[in-house]
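Z., the sequence and structure:
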Amino acid sequence: MHLLKKIWVQIRDIYFYFFRNAIIINGYVDDLTWLGIRHRNWGDDLNYYLIPLISGRPVIFYHHFWLARKLRFKNYLCIGTLLDAVNYSNPQTIVWGSGVSGQERTFVLPKKILSVRGKKTREFLTRYQIDSPNVLGDPALLLPLYYTPPSPPKKYKLGIIPHVVDLDYPAIQEIQEKFPHEVLIINLARYEKWTDIIDQISICECIASSSLHGLIVSDAYGIPNCWIELSGNLSGGYFKFYDYASSVQRLLVKPYSVSTSNDIASCIKLCKEWKTPLIDTQSILQSCPFYKKEKHKRKSQT
């Protein structure tokens, strides 16, 4: 069955590439499925859901598309901390919005950089004498241009978005049991429709997140939020958080450590200190190599 699935993915990707003008994304997404993708991390999965809305074209993924690797097709790094990751950037890669982890490690130089996630990624590249334009911002900041959630009354005082590595952290279960009607735990690995995560964020008065994209999407939709740390098992340290914050002129000092349900009040208090970030969606859009203006107009009007 696994071999059949691999063969099916090659046939599917060949069809989409040659007959549907698909965009090849180099991302951490599991598309080795009969249909769609396997949900495992919503932030990374946005490559599959958001890019088609921006471009009006389907998306296929480089790492499972044998022909793309063999013939060295043009591919894109967009959402995620993948620019300096092993086996992602290659000489045919065009970077739009991706970031680095900040770790000193060898990586393959991309063909072209159109924009990066934040100032720290740009500074990192400068140290390697790699030029990048001064266009900053995670593509997920564009989400409100393409999806508007329903606007019911706020249902929860606080939404907590654990990074996928934090989902089994004991405090999460404790909070869920103690505050079932006040606090919503938003699971980035288990969702049905990709818009469900945005809908859940929108029914919370404020958000506490150990996931970077939990903060980014909350900022994009104007939901007060704060940065928290749960298990401490998130790889790469704090670099990507500071990198993103630099792109929207947001001050992030360090995450608030949540260890028990008693920390909920402090999270809500921290969210009250949140200030609206400065998001330049036009610069992000104009730097996009596959931005379809008509698609944006149609979607933003719905």
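The chain is about 35% helix and 10% strand. Strands lie at 23-25, 59-61, 75-77, 93-96, 112-115, 158-161, 183-185, 207-209, 225-229, 256-257.

Let me know what you think.
H.
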